[in-house]
Amino acid sequence: MDFIIAETLKAVNALYQTQLAENDINLQQTRKEFEGQATIVTFPFTRFSKKSPEVTGNELGEYLQQHVSQIASFNVVKGFLNISLKDEHWIDLFKQNVSQADYGSIPSKGRKVMVEYSSPNTNKPLHLGHVRNNLLGFSVSEILAAAGYEVIKSNLVNDRGIHICKSMLAWQKFGNGETPESAGLKGDHLVGKYYVIFDKEYKKQIDELKEKGLAEEQAKKEAPLIREAQQMLQQWEAGDEQVRSLWSKMNSWVYAGFESTYKKLGVSFDKFYYESNTYLLGKDIIQEGLDKGVFFKKDDGSVWIDLTADGLDEKLVLRADGTSVYITQDLGTAQLKYNDFRMDDSIYVVGNEQDYHFKVLFLILDKLGKSWAKGLYHLSYGMVDLPSGKMKSREGTVVDADDLINEMIETARQRTEELGKTEGFNTDEKDALYRMIGMGALKYFLLKVEPKKRLLFDPNESIDFQGHTGPFIQYTHARIKSVLNKASFNVDNASFPDELTATERDLIIELGNFGKLIEAAAADHSPAIIANYVYDIAKLYNRFYHEETILKADDERVKNFRLLLSFSTANVIKKGMNMLGIEVPERM
RNA sequence: GCGCCCAUAGCUCAGCUGGAUAGAGCAACGGUUUUCUAAACCGUCGGUCUCAGGUUCGAAUCCUGAUGGGCGUACCA
């Protein structure tokens, strides 16, 4: 439809001797209650046409109809010029473009982008919040790849620190040598169990100390368990063999557990970074910043940056004792990633509680004169909350990722069996189908919402399988495949009609927007755009499916055309869903 | 205190760079299957787009302020 803009520019120039730019033309899809497919808003033109919006619209319409062969007719409603294009034009768009097997592929942009996501702590299993992160990161990676970027998916594993020592210490004290095998627990769940035990015992000690008259703050600092954990961290940093060996053992349990969860989620990574390797990085950057006068040193030896001119605060970048803080490592890690890959852009998928941190991080790198700093982007997403409030691992008020996944698959199994749709499936096929549908429901549920919005999840209300959901779209795909199979569809038999029904036209137009939507989703880092688009396509197709008959169409040309239209729709649905990390079944 | 984010139907969400009478799903009610998969389709009901100003031919969308909610503002990560 874009050619209309160019033609309108010519028309405005011819009629009103005014040279406009492309951006000055407001072209949109005609609302369905009016006739036409393309609408130009004519209000802005009245400034130089010196005529009413209606008259201006009519003059433009006349001109365009005379000069543009694809235009069939036009009508003017107030300041809106509605243009109907000939069916020939839409059929041509379908033939040349939409129906092609590679439709929706965008040529390489020659840009490399890193997407860092997941980045778990190795002291507890993944919960629903992590699931949102993982699905977002994976989906954004797929969308960027579809939009022609070279994508590197990375995962910065937080495998060291005081929280890890807490689990280790609790296991050492209360574990009696328990292993994932002996406990019959996934490794990450076993380690998480001891993280919770630590917290429970720690609280006990705090209460005891408080009874002895200590203030809360002091009790928290002096409880023997926390002291031991801190000591263990020091031993870890000193390379103490026993501590390191316990650490390796427990982390390996966790990794085995994560691997299984990642697999079920269908996410993957090209590059792992581990904080145990990167936590000392960044000190050379501190020196660089001091040399450049970006940072300054206080009397106690701590290093700071003054960001008050940018509306932020003074920020510590190195402790007085010379050790790193969080941002020190992140400065170093950012440099490391750039040295490794020389990417043009780098996206961090991290929750919105760290908005301030990333603002500061990117600003500092920019002030240090890093040329690549402008390519850094924080994909900030809202927390997943329960009706009872925030999820807290230590207090056990979390929706566990593995549990949720299993429940979704189980629900999918029940629904499918109730509907009696498993005829002709063997056991493996059934399992694959249930997994596909259950995960489709979960993933779609999480991805259809704009990332930055917070998400409320009520464990008592199961995730829907009907309506605006993943399974609805999957069902539409399976339905199409079923028709195509019945017809023994072959692309080579394609034929095209002389005219279109309204629904066929709507479907072609919407399918024609695919590329534009991929670009928009990539630019906004928003899977929600793809999710809502694919839903619109599925909905339109179902309307078409009910209104028109395909296999029994009177005219063989129409039949073959509708088959090809169905095929093309399935193609877009599949590609779109794959960008969300959702698979679509051949039948269900 | 200061900073950032959010607010659209009873509930969950769309609404493209400002454009026509603000759209879906769920829930409720009614209809559609001798015909390609009813996880579907069609219809009814449901709105002061949190509030108050402003900019504009035109505001859910932009600006200012207020209210409500979330987050941050650590020599934690």
Concise synopsis of the structure shown:
The protein is α/β, with parallel strands linked by helices. The chain has 22 helices and 14 strands.
Question: Any chance you could write out the topology, listing elements then pairs?
Answer:
Layout: H1 3-16, E1 27-29, E2 38-41, H2 46-49, H3 53-67, E3 71-77, E4 80-85, H4 87-98, E5 112-116, H5 128-146, E6 150-157, H6 162-174, H7 180-183, H8 187-211, H9 216-222, H10 224-238, H11 241-265, E7 271-274, H12 275-278, H13 283-292, E8 296-297, E9 303-306, E10 314-318, H14 326-341, E11 345-351, H15 355-367, E12 376-381, E13 384-385, H16 401-418, H17 427-447, E14 455-456, H18 470-486, H19 502-511, H20 514-524, H21 527-547, H22 556-579
Parallel strand pairs: 5-6, 5-11, 6-7, 11-12, 13-14
Antiparallel strand pairs: 1-2, 2-4, 3-4, 8-9, 9-10
Helix pairs in contact: 1-3, 4-19, 5-20, 6-8, 6-10, 8-9, 8-11, 13-14, 16-17, 18-21, 18-22, 19-21, 19-22, 20-21, 21-22
The chain binds one RNA strand of 77 nucleotides through helix 15, helix 18, helix 20 and helix 21.
Characteristics of this structure?
588 residues; alpha/beta; 5-stranded parallel beta sheet; 4-stranded antiparallel beta sheet; 11% strand; RNA-binding
